[in-house]
Amino acid sequence: MDRYICFDVETPNLRNDRMSAIGVCVVENGIIVDERYSLVNPEESFDSFNIQLTGITPAMAVKAPTFKELWPSLGPLLNSGLLVAHNAQFDMSVLSKCLHAYNIPSRDSTEYVCTCRMGKRILPWMPNHKLDTVCRELFIDLDHHNAASDAHACAEILLYCIKKGARIEDFRRRYSFKDTRTVKV
Questions:
Q1: What secondary structure, in 3-state letters, does 119-173 show?
Q2: Parallel, antiparallel, or unpaired for β 82-85 and 109-114?
Q3: Structural domain tally of the chain?
């Protein structure tokens, strides 16, 4: 069974070391089977840039669970398949920083796939491979910088690229939660 855990995070400030929202879209055997979304109380300040970008305010996040409170349900989900994100280095980095900030034990490393990287090879004709551009070109609905919508769009891009002949093995990378280096698997 092929199981992909497409995810996207939003951050409250330019440090990008905490989440203010997370969206997850689970793909099994070529079908989206589950979608989840949560605001996250980052327990940190918000920058006006991030508020404008995401629409998430401190007042919205203050009553949301913290990353540590979400982890008992989020961790098993994220660990249940191959992680996938668009511009994955960013999302993987934020995830790693949150795990460290809350002293949550994790694996030393994990495998992931980046749909931005995949798109560059499978869709070279596009003007760029930013999430909103790829979605516009492929007619995928997107409420950009909404973590649920971004995760769903990532899943749709993944499925499109696979349909067009992308082999997951060619795009697998390993992310180290210890030193944040990425290596090709």
A1: HHHHCCCCCCCCHHHHHHHHCCCCCCCCHHHHHHHHHHHHHHHHHCCCCHHHCCE
A2: parallel
A3: 1
Q: Does some domain include residue 169?
A: yes
Helices and strands in the chain: count of H runs, count of E runs: 7, 7
**Residue in the structure block whose two tokens are 């993944």:** 158
Q: Which amino acid is at 87?
A: N
Residue 66 carries which DSSP code?
A: B
> Is residue 86 included in any domain, yes or no?
yes
Q: What is the pLDDT of residues 36-72, one digit of tens each?
A: 999 999 999 999 999 999 999 999 999 999 999 999 9
Which pTM value belongs to this model?
A: 0.94
Report the CATH number at residue 66: 3.30.420.10
